[in-house]
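Q: what sequence does this backbone want?
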């Protein structure tokens, strides 16, 4: 951008979303110097309908649709999203122009009264609205009782207290970004992503622009982090191959190795109740998301219909 015009930046209204937007602004200012901007908080359907399951109101897109509409309509110049909230196929008029360096990919189990999940009493109540997290909790401890709650990260902690639940699962990147557990009485256990698979693109942010806005693309592309983009693009390719949304449990972790990468994945099939966990090593990263998606689908089909 050659002139210092006001940049209107769209974000969800939650404290975490605003903080993530501020982090993107700080990175842009580090690259370009100070520039005039306005953060435009936007309400989304996913935020408004917190008592309804995401599966009932459209899945992942419910957290980004209103923001994308504002971007398409010219109300804002760019948008900052949690990349894991975005659908695998982007709107043709929009473009992810930058994916900054990724935060922690792991999930954290936030505990109210004990310091580790192994110390939880039998039948302890843990909160999450994610089918992926629910399945993985049951793999850790089949006796755990899972309570479904929704809301922004602060509200979920409040609900844990109000309902006297034993814990809840949150993304560690979100906890880190707003220092939510600092000076709190809670303990957080950070889960091994090789066995407690994170959501697709967890910990990554996306800076989205109108596809034809070349000046804005030039402005924000300086904060694009190549290694992060390379990994999350393969995770999203995996998601596209599975045609995934919030209606099926999917988890993934890509681990760099000395010679190539290791791809860990989880895929559930709700009608049968079957789940497949798979790990494969590849000599290179590019193109493996689609290949791994085909492999895990084949394993699931064999498990669901062995004939």
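A:
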């Amino acid at each position: 951008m050659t002139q210092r015009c006001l940049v209107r930046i769209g974000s969800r209204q939650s404290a975490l979303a605003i903080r993530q937007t501020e982090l993107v602004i700080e990175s842009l200012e580090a690259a370009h110097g100070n520039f005039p901007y306005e953060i435009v908080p936007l309400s989304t359907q996913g935020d408004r309908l917190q008592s309804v399951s995401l599966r009932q109101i459209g899945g992942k897109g419910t957290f980004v649709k209103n923001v994308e509409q504002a971007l398409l309509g010219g109300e804002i110049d760019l948008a900052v999203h949690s990349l894991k909230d975005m659908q695998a196929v982007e709107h043709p008029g929009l473009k992810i122009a930058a994916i900054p360096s990724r935060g922690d990919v792991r999930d954290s189990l936030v505990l109210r009264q004990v310091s580790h999940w192994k110390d939880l009493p039998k039948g302890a109540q843990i909160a999450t609205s994610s089918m992926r997290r629910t399945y993985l909790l049951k793999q850790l401890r089949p006796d755990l009782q899972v309570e479904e709650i929704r809301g922004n990260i602060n509200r979920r902690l409040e609900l844990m207290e109000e309902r006297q639940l034993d814990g809840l699962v949150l993304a560690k990147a979100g906890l880190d970004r707003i220092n939510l557990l600092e000076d709190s009485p809670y303990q957080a256990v950070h889960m091994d992503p090789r066995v407690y698979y994170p959501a697709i693109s967890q910990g990554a942010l996306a800076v989205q622009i109108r596809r034809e806005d070349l000046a804005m693309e030039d402005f924000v592309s300086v904060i694009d982090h190549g290694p992060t983009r390379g990994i999350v693009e393969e995770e999203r390719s995996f998601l596209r191959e599975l045609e995934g949304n919030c209606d099926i449990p999917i988890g993934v972790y890509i681990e760099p190795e000395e010679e190539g990468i290791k791809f860990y994945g989880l895929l559930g099939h709700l009608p049968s109740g079957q789940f497949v966990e798979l790990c494969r090593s590849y000599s290179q990263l590019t193109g493996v998301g689609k290949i791994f998606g085909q492999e895990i689908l084949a394993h699931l089909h064999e498990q669901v219909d062995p004939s």
